[in-house]
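Human: I would love a firmer grasp of how sequence relates to backbone shape in proteins. Could you go through the record with me and say what the backbone is doing? Here is the record:
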Amino acid sequence: MHILVTNDDGIDSPGIYALVQALRTVGKVSVVAPDRQQSAVGHALTVSSPLRATKIRRDGAFFGYAINGTPADCVKIGICSLLEEKADLLVSGINHGSNTSKNILYSGTVSAATEGMMMGLPSIAVSIDSLDYKTDCTVAAEYAAKLAAQYFALNVPADIVLNVNVPAIAKEHIKGFRVTKQGTSGWEDAYERRLDPMGREYFWLSGHYNSKDTDENTDEGAMKAGYVSVTPIQYQLTATDFMSRLDITP
């Protein structure tokens, strides 16, 4: 199996390193990832400036390509131009910070997987429920590898991405995989007013996360209960149930 790996935390993040090491037990791994932090960029594409691919070495060997673009850029350029042979599976992550509930819409990690799916490549997004870069991602990487190894036996439809969220707890406390639905939690936004050294006003996004999902059948609730949440998501946005009731006057 040939696995394309990307992320949104950047090619130098500990999450992508742990993921690559684990996936190498499953198959051949190619890495194409952003050259810097790209969290919350969603599905943005670079259309007005050139993209550059820089070869990166780690542990004394070629690790992958760093791209000065978004996660979706990385998937596109990887599939179209950089991979020497066709990939069988894309795995995006491991993201530092969960991508559950409404956060899915902002996530560069999930959007990279979605771009892979749109380009005909089976795709998985993986996140760990901790924003601390010192958090050990080894266990999350092991579960990602377990899922990757059995992916093609699951008969996942071509228009579906598996969105995986792993609790940041010890391995012995994880209860296993749980198939879940997207929750309803989300950020309550606020912007702090600040002054720069020149006395000019600027704003910094802050706020707090309103974690209200406790149902173990939701992505957030399953993580709280100690499960690795696996949510099948798709991006057909048409409100088909409402179409017949949308009576517009000529």
Q: What stands out?
A: The longest strand covers residues 89-96. The chain has one domain: 2-183+214-237. The mean pLDDT is 94.
